[in-house]
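As described in the Methods, two query proteins were run sequentially through the folding procedure within a single session, without resetting any intermediate state between them. The first query and its resulting structure tokens are shown here.
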Amino acid sequence: MTATNNLILDEEMPERYLTEMNEEKHEVALSTHDLEVFYGEKRALHNADLKFERYKITALIGASGSGKSTFLRSLNRMNDTVATVNGQIMYRGLDINTKDIDVYEMRKHIGMVFQRPNPFAKSIYDNITFALKQHGIKDRKILDERVETSLKQAALWDEVKDDLHKSALELSGGQQQRLVIARAVAMKPDILLLDEPASALDPISSAKIENTLLELKKDYTIIIVTHNMQQAARVSDYTAFFHMGEVVEYDLTRKIFTRPKVQRTIDYVNGNFG
């Protein structure tokens, strides 16, 4: 591993990358510069210069095909095998969109949860510990502690604590999604990316996911793609509106939904779009 990669793995590295947001200085966890994504010859994303504040939830909204999921997947290099991603993705002072970055190590710091729950065909306990064991954590006491902590963070512990060796596939859809979130946070990432995590769930399960996210932001920087504008309004601190492969407007959520500056944003949040 190169010296550059070692910087990414330094848990004690001070974060002093600040930006001017709403006339106050806030700590930035991740930022993108001149980011553009191509699928073959087709440019799917451009003008995506964003800065994400630490310990806040940022929602990415927009119509299907607007580029928001493409952008999200680029943040931890999930598009590497299917697209060409140009530009900078800055994390801890490093551009993680370069060839010398160890992508698998980087994903320990920038975790991801997908649209549909994808638990492993293993027990609840083994779902949480699988990646931990792969990364060399074998001590049973540490594994037990990490399982309990992550399940509590995902608001699932009380529901499954007596059934940890039951198959994860026996859980309800909402429970499976919270298990997947627990699996992600068990690695203690710095940033959590979520792509439509509640879109396949019923309203009660969706509400539990939202409450979980509000609790998780105490410890994590969260970036979430959602089609549900009410959900974005409820859980996010900042919102970015994507349209036809570019970021049209990015601001505090309350401003995006009450005083947007761009007509296309006004049309979208008022339902007069298309």
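Immediately afterward, the second query was submitted; its sequence and tokens are:
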Amino acid sequence: MNLERNSASIVEAIDAGLLAGAVTLVWHAGEVVQVNELGYRDVDARLPMQRDTIFRIASMTKPVTVAAAMSLIEQGKLALTDRVATWLPELADMRVLAEPRGPLDHTVPAQRHITVEDLMTHRSGLAYMFSVLGPLADAYRRLPTRQDQDRWLTELAVLPLAHQPGERLTYSHATDVLGIALSRIEGKPLSDVLTERILGPLGMSDTGFSVGPTGRRRAATMYSLDSDNTLRHDVMGPAPIVDPPFCLGGAGLWSTADDYLRFARMLLAGGTFDGVRVLSEESVRLMRTDRLTDEQKRQDFLGAPFWIGRGFGLNLSVVTDTARSRQLFGPGGLGSFSWPGAYGTWWQADPSADVILVYLIQNLPNLTVDAAAAIAGNTSLAKLQSAQPKFVRRTYEALDL
């Protein structure tokens, strides 16, 4: 097994000035077989990436929040079919846009209530500012998350849904809403709920909504690419020492490669880690089982044909057709599951090969349609866009999978 070549594409992106650095991890058959520490976590200070560097993991937060919700479901505190308005009365009488890009006051009533499962599968009709168009996108853009969760939810609930609950998948703030529900059910901040139910039992001591004073020294700096394809430094400020007033269950966690490996190993093993049962086998099975209809899979995800050869469980992408998935997304056996983060973070657990890969970088994307078109025609950015897929393909080749 020769894994040395799997980092070449990442090094090329770093040398081209498109990426500050990365940490990657390969786990196979019960052991970590490789960790790459590449480039810098802070270019100006010449601080190198290290195995224990802490990253903003963005939407990799979502499966963790869902796992905590499954823990509550096991105790009978909620169910997938429950109306979320039971705990979030702000969402009791929702309206739906009559036309996708139409005015916000041109609506029809929601045909049914939003359920817990709708939130976990992004079929609630909620959205992100970059997942819809027109006036609704503008309204989401004006919705600040730097406020307490109750005020934020009140402002969110005023907005119409993008479509009828259950109708289709629209990537959204749904997991942030789920986090508020968990907080209200348990009567404590979401950070405490996640720590008690998932992070603590798994020993994920470097994962949370803040990093503390010592963790700040290990935190990776966030970068973005300017219009001339040069890295702009520190575009998000320092890592928070204390938790924010609103802990975003869909995007707010910081973590390390080894910590997230623990979470992925628990899901791969059917709910246990090092002899500790965190979730039931049934909860993990539900998370890892495709729930989309054939019609829903025909609809693009963020403008891309994401569901070719794969489906969606409870906030986990799941490979359902190995050959078709491999053509678009690279290696991953039947039942492989993953969910990425907006800043370039990614992971995958493959039960057929007993492999887990973790890939962590910190690049803030430009999520506009115009930016996507520019990236598609920019050959220099190809080095950055292809770094992660090449890392995955070369890792599978080296492991002879």
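Confidence is low (pLDDT under 50) at residues 369-378. We note this only descriptively and draw no conclusion about the first query from it.
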